[in-house]
Specification:
Blueprint lengths: L5 E10 L7 E8 L5 E4 L14 E9 L8 E10 L2 E4 L3 E4 L15 E3 L6 E11 L5 H10 L2 E7 L4 E6 L6 H12 L4 E8 L21 E6 L5
Parallel strand pairs: 1-13
Antiparallel strand pairs: 1-4, 2-3, 2-5, 5-6, 5-7, 8-9, 9-11, 9-12, 10-11
Length: 224
Amino acid sequence: MPPNTTTDVVFTVQVHGRALNEILNVSLNGINNINSVLLNDAGQDGDLVPDDGAYSGTLTVDTNGLSPQECLIYKAIAITSTGNFTSPGYELCVTAFPIGFQPSDTSHVVSDPESGEPAIADEVLVGFKAGTSESTMISIAESVNGQIIGSLIELGIYQIKLDTPAATSAELAVILAALAAFPEVEFSESNVIDQDTTVVPSDSKFSDQDGTRMTKHGISQEDM
């Protein structure tokens, strides 16, 4: 979430392992904040399909006064005829970086140093270790004459745009190695283009990311 903003966010909670007629209500509750909302499965207020076990509701999230990387924590509670069940906590964090990935310039392409596949010449993807400050991330990006233009906060992946595109695969490899040398960096890799020319990171968890304004919880009996 951007700092110093007030944003309506749709939360969706999927309830597993319970018949619909056993569920009395589902709510989302702030753990370190006072926000809460009663969710519905009636096709209203952000709920897309009625009676499918997915409960949704809109919550106004206020990040005024919060610092970058400070997180709001939420848990979903399902009250059923056989007992109450609580989801694991979900963190919605404040960041000064753009949320989501920005469109890439596919007119400048070089070969990925590892796979040989075509990759964006003026971008790299970096995963930072937990606890790395945003100011440190900015400094690391600047060390290779780049800037952070996009982020997948939940996955810890950041999109860095280089001021000057790499001219060759070897030049891109040097940039990636320089980034990987920082102790705060978990990984650095090129931004590979898939067969449909859609730019995706090679991180295997990319497809698991939440939508920019749609957060998802799952409640199952195993989680309670």
